[in-house]
Specification:
This protein has 433 residues and is mainly beta. Helix content is 5%, strand content 35%. The strands form eight sheets. The chain has an eight-stranded parallel β-sheet with strand order 18-20-22-24-26-28-30-32, with no helix packed on it. Strands 9-10-12-14-16 form a five-stranded mixed β-sheet, with no helix packed on it. A five-stranded parallel β-sheet has the order 27-29-31-33-34, with no helix packed on it. A hairpin with a 2-residue loop joins strand 9 and strand 10 (137-141). The radius of gyration is 31 Å and the shape is elongated. It starts with 6 loop residues before the first strand and ends with a strand.
Length: 433
């Protein structure tokens, strides 16, 4: 945030070989502030600074006990062949992303002393007197009407329920913060939040029922788990996960109806019960190395159209629990992650548009109703020359399936495996070329 203060200039001519610019830094009460660093930028570098506040000034000095910073500009260095130059003077507090800055300046005439003031205004967002902090943990707000907060650098965590049902709309969390407590922002008015790279944990129900928030970027954090009901019934539309993520706990995104496209990081291992159940997701991308997808993890997602997989499979003992993708009426094709070896039942019941399955090489067993949709299925492709063990009624009903594709040269193996239980299905088996 840049605040341009009023300025004045002195017209007295000083030494023609040197121009003096004096900056006085004051607070809102008019009191001079000693020890503040003032940086100077020319027109071009000032524009860069506004986009990148880490850019150091071309000159800098510190205010004395009168609150004054003095810049002495040599003519041959700063005004060579020109009569005036646009210069800006800046005070910046904090570090990216928790920072605030104030500026003043303008056209500086060669050979004329000039003076400016910078008034550092108190920003409620950065006023720690409005926060309740105990042992570096933010536990609550003194002002219940506060809508914006930029946390100071010393905060290590946010306590349980600290912002629950609050009016907070925007918050910038400081680098150095480690944890966010249970129900920390539950039912708040939160719209925007900046997460630090140091964050390692977010508690249960932390953002549940936040109806105004749209985007969540966790990509720079160190989170390994997203806990139970963390974003349940929230309004988030987009989320970016960190590479460190391993688990999404039960009902973490339950009924997050605005959530759309989701790509899970390649290190994730477990998606627990109903993690995305009844959410608004239209597509989900799952790594081939997933270890466990549990009960109804993606069930009742009425907008889900595609499930895609990516990356290598470094394990071959993955499991998919009961009902993981049931009642998704727009899903038309399903490719299993390569790591899935065991498929439980009732996973695709109610998927009325699902026409094709691709079964990976590592699939070892499919339990009752594992591939049954109760609707017509055009094609099932098995990628392994050794068929998975099939429990009774594992495949779609005979009359509901058009063809079964298997690897070239494996028909005899499939015949031996299916004899007695799936004899009639052999009539629909076709070897790939």
């Amino acid at each position: 945030m840049g605040i341009l203060s009023a300025c004045s200039s002195k017209d007295k001519v000083s030494n023609q070989t040197e121009t003096t610019v004096e900056i006085t830094v004051k607070n809102q009460k008019g009191e001079s502030i000693a020890g503040e660093t003032v940086q100077m930028y020319d027109k071009n570098t000032y524009e860069i600074f506004k986009e990148n506040p880490t850019l150091k000034g071309q000159l800098q000095t510190i205010t004395d006990n009168r609150g004054k910073a003095v810049f002495r500009l040599k003519k041959d260095e700063w005004f060579n062949k020109i009569k005036e130059k646009e210069l800006m003077f800046v005070v910046i507090k904090g570090n990216v992303p928790n920072y605030q800055w104030w500026s003043t300046g303008g056209n500086i005439k060669a050979g004329k002393n000039q003076s400016f003031e910078i008034i550092i205004e108190s920003n409620p967002a950065t006023d720690t007197s409005l926060l309740i902090i105990e042992n570096d943990i933010l536990v609550g707000l003194k002002d219940k009407n506060l809508t914006s907060v930029i946390l100071p650098q010393n905060i290590k965590g946010i306590a349980d329920k600290a912002f629950k049902e609050s009016q907070i709309q925007t918050i910038v969390l400081n680098e150095g913060m480690l944890s966010i407590g249970n129900e920390a922002f539950k039912e708040s008015k939160l719209q925007s939040i900046v997460f630090p790279s140091t964050l390692t944990s977010i508690g249960r129900n932390a953002f549940e029922d936040c109806k105004s928030i749209k985007d969540i970027d966790l990509s720079k954090t160190r989170l390994q788990n997203i806990e139970t009901e963390t974003f349940r019934e929230s309004s988030i539309a987009e989320i970016s996960f960190p590479a460190t993520l391993q688990t999404i706990a039960s009902q973490a995104f339950l009924k997050a109806e605005r959530l759309s496209s989701v790509k899970l990081p390649d290190g994730i291992q477990t998606i627990e019960d109903e993690a995305f159940c009844e959410s608004g997701i239209t597509s989900v991308t799952i790594p081939n190395n997933i270890k466990l997808i549990e009960y109804r993890a993606f069930a009742d997602c009425s907008n889900l159209q595609s499930v895609e997989c990516y990356g290598p499979a470094q394990q071959n003992n993955g499991k998919m629990g009961i009902g993981c993708f049931q009642n998704n009426p727009q899903l038309s094709k399903f490719t299993f992650p390569e790591s899935i070896a065991e498929l439980k039942g009732w996973n695709f019941i109610g998927c009325s548009s699902l026409k094709e399955f691709i079964i990976p090489q590592n699939m070892k067993s499919i339990e009752a109703y594992g591939l049954v949709t109760n609707y017509n299925v055009d094609k099932i492709t098995f990628l392994s020359v050794v068929p998975p063990a099939l429990k009774e009624k594992a495949l779609p009903f005979y009359n509901n399936i058009k063809e079964i594709r298997i690897p070239k040269g494996s028909k005899e193996t499939y015949q031996k495996q299916w004899e007695g239980s799936y004899d009639s299905y052999l009539k629909k088996v076709i070897e790939n070329n």
